[in-house]
Amino acid sequence: MKKSILTLASLAFLFAACNNAPTTETTETTPETTETTAPAETETETAPAESTAPAVAEVTIEGNDQMKFNLSEIKVKEGQTVKLTLKHVGKAPKTVMGHNFVLLAQGLDMVTFSKDAIAAKATDYIPEKDLSNIIAHTKLIGGGESDVIEFTAPAKGSYDFLCSFPGHAALMKGKFIVE
Ligand code: ZN
């Protein structure tokens, strides 16, 4: 009888000891967690520099059945990856009211380009001879469609963008500004 009580007592002690052990470990882990938080704060300090110019600039521009873009100016930072979405929010098919987004290099005159584009129906109004002076362009889309393109923002400056569907550049144009 006496022996078994002792055994029970020592078992209880062992149980308590085992129970204490993890608690002590947990207490030890807590300072470690605090230590882990410290480097994280250092990362947070680095973050503002990055957030000044996020790696990717997401731009959405809409074209409608009234032959208009919803933006006349787009601003990005030099060197950013520009993820540009062109949405045709109208209903007219692309043969009647097609839209694209064409970003011209600074040497290419917009008026001359849009005149040349009229003759480039086979290539969706993107003259092949001008391709080297086009920074980026979407495909030609009709009502309800959209297209997404990605390109690297060029050097700081002001660039022209337009829709090269015949006649549209009169209204569908704007400035793409790289800061
Ligand atoms: Zn258009």
Question: Could you please describe the fold and organization of this structure?
Answer:
It is a single chain. The chain is of the alpha/beta class and 179 residues long. Helices cover 36% and strands 26% of the residues. It contains three helices and eight strands, in the order H-E-E-E-H-E-H-E-E-E-E. The protein has helices at 2-52, 94-97, 110-118, and strands at residues 56-63, 73-76, 81-88, 102-104, 134-137, 146-152, 157-162, 173-178. A five-stranded mixed sheet has the order 2-8-7-4-5, with no helix packed on it. Strands 1-3-6 form a three-stranded mixed sheet, with no helix packed on it. The longest helix is centred in the first third of the chain and has 51 residues, at 2-52. It is globular, with a radius of gyration of 31 Å. Zinc ion binds next to loops. Zinc ion (ZN) is lined by residues 63, 98-99, 163, 165, 168, 172.
Per-chain topology:
Blueprint: H1 2-52, E1 56-63, E2 73-76, E3 81-88, H2 94-97, E4 102-104, H3 110-118, E5 134-137, E6 146-152, E7 157-162, E8 173-178
Parallel strand pairs: 1-3, 2-8
Antiparallel strand pairs: 3-6, 4-5, 4-7, 7-8
The structure holds zinc ion (ZN).
